[in-house]
Amino acid sequence: MKIALFPGSFDPFTNGHADIVQRGLQLFDRIIISIGHNSKKKRYLPIEKMIGHVRDTYATNDRIEVITYDELTAELAIRYKANYLLRGLRNTTDFEYENSIAQVNRHLNPNLETVFLITSPQYAHINSSIIREVHRYGGDVNEFLPYTI
Ligand code: ADP
């Protein structure tokens, strides 16, 4: 059984993330969307709210699980018997960052392979931090999300 973690801040979880999940389902038997308490980032949307929205989005799909976590991703993978980390790549900025965390994660857990999917062009511009800014000033962001806030 191929189990992948899809870890991220997901603040918020967007249509870009949903596209990675949908395509990941063609590669993996199970995907565990893992919403992290990122030590460097203070959340905008409460993690309890986000887990509710993402669980509702995938309520009918028994191959997807949604959890929150506050530990090393490499250790979370061991607990969930996941051999794969799923991540999305939008551009070279993502690549620089993803390259270093993938190296560290493999060092921490040699059985963990990071698999990158290149973003579909129609979602490449979707960026959680811009969505937060728009929402903060009262703009409608629902067209970027697979649920409504
Ligand atoms: P993190 O804080 O761990 O980078 P994010 O929630 O920002 O968490 O992103 C989680 C993953 O989703 C990352 O691999 C990121 O590159 C990817 N991602 C973010 N936005 C998009 C998008 N629009 N399309 C595809 N992948 C994306």
Task: Write a structural description.
This protein has 149 residues and is an alpha/beta fold. The chain has a single domain (3-144), classed as HUPs (Rossmann fold, 3-Layer(aba) Sandwich), CATH 3.40.50.620. Helix content is 36%, strand content 21%. It has helices at residues 15-24, 47-57, 73-79, 92-108, 128-136; strands at 3-8, 30-36, 64-69, 84-89, 113-118. Adenosine-5'-diphosphate binds at residues 8-10, 14, 16-17, 20, 38, 87-88, 90, 94, 119, 123, 126, 128. Residues 8-10, 14, 16-17, 20, 38, 87-88, 90, 94, 119, 123, 126, 128 line the site of adenosine-5'-diphosphate.
The helix/strand series, from N terminus to C terminus, equals: EHEHEHEHEH
- What is the CATH level 1 assignment? Alpha Beta
Count up the helices: 5
Output the CATH topology. Answer: Rossmann fold
Beta-sheet strand percentage?
Answer: 15-25%
Helix content: 25-40%
What value does the average pLDDT take?
Answer: 96
CATH superfamily descriptor: HUPs
Q: How many angstroms does the end-to-end distance come to? A: 35 Å
Radius of gyration, Cα only, in angstroms?
A: 15 Å
Sum up the structure in keywords.
five-stranded parallel sheet, 5 helices, 149 residues, alpha/beta, Rossmann fold, binds adenosine-5'-diphosphate
Quick take:
This protein has 149 residues and is of the alpha/beta class. The protein is 36% helix and 21% strand.
